[in-house]
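Worked example 2:
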Amino acid sequence: MSVITAGARDSGVVAWRNLLNIKRNPDWLLAGTVQPIMFVLLFAYVFGGSLGGAQYREFLIGGIFVQTVAFNSSFTVIGLANDLQKGIVDRFRALPMSRVAVLLGRTTSDLAVAVLTVAIMSVCGLLVGWRIRGSVTDALLAYAVLLLFSFAMSWVGAFIGLISRSVEVAQSAGLLWLFPVTFISSAFVSAENMPGPLRAFATWNPITVTADSLRMLFGNPVRVDRLPPDAWPAQHAVPYAVGSALLIIAVFVPLAVARYRRVASR
C-alpha cells in the first residue's frame, strides 16, 4: 500500500471518528446551525428594511454563507485543542498510522459539517426570499468555491488549535480574530462606505471577494446601494477567491503539520 493510499485511509478513519463524536454530542452543531440562521433573520428583517429590503436579502446571503464557514473553523480549533488536552493525540502517536491523518481527518470532518451547514443555510435563505438566478453550472461552481474556502479556513483553525495551550484559550483564539476580519468586509454592507484604510483592507479581504464571487455566480446583487467597485479583486472575484483559498491552504498546511510534529514529539 502506497504512502498516499495509507494516509487517505487513516484520514478517513479519523474523520469518521470525529463525525461520530458530533453524533454523540449534537450540541456541537448548535452554533454552526442556529447562529447563522439568527444572523439571517436579524439582518434580513431587523436591518434589511433600512438597507434595501428584498434586494438586500439577496445581497446578504452570500455574505452569510462566507461568514458561516469562516466561523465554523472554530470547530477545528476546539476539536484539536480538546484532543491535545485529553491525550488523544498521544494515543494516535502510538498507532501505526500516518502523522498527517490526524490533521487531514479533522479538516475533512469539519468540511462535512460545513456541507450540512451550507445546506441548512440555503433552505433558510430560500425562506427569506433569496433565489439562485444564475445557471445550474454557476451555482455548483459557487458552492465549490465556498467549500474550498471552508477547507482553507479549517487549516487556519488547525494551526490555531495546535498552538493553543488549553481548550479555554482555543475557544477565545478561534473566534477573536474572525470578528474584525469578517466584519471589515462586504459580507453585510458595501465596503465603499468605510473609511479609507478599512475600505482598502475590505477590498482585498478574501471574505469580501469570496462573498462577491458567490453573488456573481448565484446571480444576486453584488452591491445594493451603489455600482460594484472597479478594483481588481472585484473585477476578478472568482479567480481571486479561488487563488486566495489555495494560498491560505499552501501557507497553513505546512505550518499546521510542522506544529503537529513538534507537539507530537514532546
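Residues 3-264 form one domain. The chain is about 80% helix and 0% strand.
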